[in-house]
Input
Amino acid sequence: MSAPSPNTLILSGPVITTFLRFALPSMLGLLAITTASIVDGIFVGHFVSSDGLAAINLLIPYLSLIFGLALMIAIGGAVRCGHFLGRGDNTKASAVFSKCLVAVLCVGLSFMLLSWWLDQSILRLLGTPDSLLPEILSYFHIISGVLVVQIFTMVLYYFVRQDNAQRLATTALVTGAVMNIVLDAIFIIHFEMGLTGAAWATAIAQCIQLIILLRFFGRRQRLLHWFWPSQWAELKQISFNGLSECINEISGGLVILVLNWTLVTQLGVDGIAAFAVINYLIFVSLMLYYGIADALHLLVSHNHGAANSQRIVQFVATASTMVILISVLLVMLLLLSPQWLTALFLSDSSATSRQLSMTFISLVWPLFLINGLNVILSIYLTAMQKPRPSMLIALSRGLVLPVSLLLLLSWLLSPPEFLVALPIAEWLTFLLAACLFIRYTPAHSVKIQIQKPPY
Output
């Protein structure tokens, strides 16, 4: 007897084993990226300087803008593609695939040219002190070019997974991450190339990832095929459906921008370097949650297309349970080993930044208990093609609540106590997200779809 097809498993296979089949490769791939980013930060913090770590942190808001636009195309397109695949319409799914690849390439090239033309203006807008400009400029120039490959690879990754090529997608991410670590060691430690070495390591690793993913086009059994699209109006719906993920990414960058401005004013470069450690920890947690969310939006979008509400509930419950377990483990690590975590990124010569980082951890750890569930509920609404409520969650957790609370508490409290704004914002968002999930249950949304199909 032949094994069931991946699409059959999505629509009728055992819930937990099916979920793990799609979630574990995604988590492994994103965990590899996380590991590479952590090692990158460790190398820069120990073998370049704490100023180098601060310099990378200053670029996060700008990079978040670019990645946000790419995520909007990737997730909005993947969800729409998954819906068509669930209905068995491979031609429309391929049209979505083709439009998204062309769109993200245009986005990447536009930002590359903008970054090279207005480099110093952009860096000063990000709050870069004059003392860091010489150190960050060459890194910024290289990374701006790398981003074209990086965001194209990211969008291709999401569609490759939609076409049941999880093994290929995971292989690409893991191989690229391992190469990034190896090249970091060679360029930063052996050749002492500093931030420029870190940038070239990322560039080569991203090209390797893309080369591996391009093997997808050689698969005979693939459902998605690229062709030059004749109609582009669909990009509006794709972008709107992925807008919440774009807002999540961009808003996170804006929060970091506000934090950087506040920290550099009140605590100097040491404050930015210290918060860079927290950023890496938040990044680790989000990558794990997005690994689960990647599987969830794939499974939910297919079952939404098949009008299977009970199965959607089961997948959401499975994803939420996994997220809660990871959250508890992360909080235990933060509370039991904060000294070890800060020592990973900051050398003994950065004593001030180390102490500040320990204080930051003691203030922000409650956000790690709940930020994963907010990600899951937002992705669920996106996969159910409810962009407005998903966008509301994204705006609340990523922009409105953290920025307003940071500005208010920075006025009421002395530094760095105002950082409690971040966990407060996350918990208030969870209350909103829970209410929206109750409002847009799978049964309700599927019933509406049957009465009035969205396509």
Remarks:
- The radius of gyration is 21 Å.
- The chain has a mean pLDDT of 83.
- Residues 149 and 206 are 7 Å apart (CA to CA).
- The chain has one domain: 15-451.
